[in-house]
């Protein structure tokens, strides 16, 4: 199984940074060991590395649920530039490109697949994902799950069902903004009661 040495090497080779900052290495260790985690890290604190690096190192595709198409576009473009096999599925993707992405995910050729919560619950998509090797599931901007969060998104409430459908796949909730009430709600809604929290 991959360890922090491999993670640090990936950080240098792919992203050009020499070492982890703050709580990144703790979060990454937890996920590499196959455990669920909740990470509340500051904006600009490299939250995305916490799921991108384990997704690159663990077998299968890292599924990233993100509420913002612009954010998905930026991250996928940056990852591809760095040589990482990343793709996104959102309402702007044409059907040919969508089919190609789905095939790549099923064949285990993608490191990261970004999808909106609405896309995740589109008809048949969860059934499709069950045919794919899944490395991890990251819920970015996880405060959107909470009715106490400032960007509440009803679709995020349903993400708790991923715990049952993908038992054994490490899940992560990642956000920059969550007070104690919101953190508790994130844990409950996403069924992450036993996950370690790094704040």
What's a quick, concise take on this entry?
Helix content is 42%, strand content 16%. With 199 residues, the protein is an alpha/beta fold.
Characteristics:
alpha/beta, 7 strands, globular
Mean pLDDT: 92
Number of strands: 7
Secondary-structure content class: alpha/beta
SS field, number of helical segments? 10
Q: What is the CA-based Rg, rounded?
A: 15 Å
What order do the SSEs take from the amino end to the carboxyl end, as H and E?
Answer: HHEHEHEHEHHEHHEHE
Main sheet makeup:
7 strands, parallel
- The proportion of residues forming helix, as a percent range, comes to 40-55%
Termini separation (Å)?
Answer: 26 Å
Low-confidence stretches: none
Large-scale geometry = globular
| Strand order across the largest sheet | 3-4-2-5-6-1-7
Strand residue content: 15-25%
């Amino acid at each position: 199984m991959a360890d922090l040495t491999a993670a640090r090497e990936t950080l240098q080779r792919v992203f050009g940074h020499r070492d982890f900052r703050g709580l990144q290495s703790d979060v990454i260790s937890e996920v590499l060991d196959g455990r669920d985690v909740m990470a509340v890290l500051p904006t600009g604190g490299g939250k995305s590395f916490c799921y991108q690096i384990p997704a690159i190192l663990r077998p299968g595709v890292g599924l990233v649920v993100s509420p913002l198409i612009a954010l998905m576009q930026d991250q996928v473009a940056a990852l591809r530039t760095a040589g990482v096999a990343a793709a996104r599925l959102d309402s702007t993707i044409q059907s040919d490109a969508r089919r190609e992405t789905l095939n790549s995910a099923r064949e285990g050729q993608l490191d990261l697949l970004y999808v909106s919560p609405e896309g995740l619950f589109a008809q048949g998509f969860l059934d499709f994902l069950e045919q794919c090797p899944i490395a991890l599931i990251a819920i970015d901007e996880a405060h959107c799950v909470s009715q106490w969060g400032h960007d509440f998104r009803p679709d995020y409430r349903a993400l708790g069902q991923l715990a049952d459908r993908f038992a054994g796949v490490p899940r992560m909730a990642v956000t920059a903004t969550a007070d104690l009430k919101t953190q508790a709600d994130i844990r409950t809604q996403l069924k992450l009661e036993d996950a370690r929290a790094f704040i």
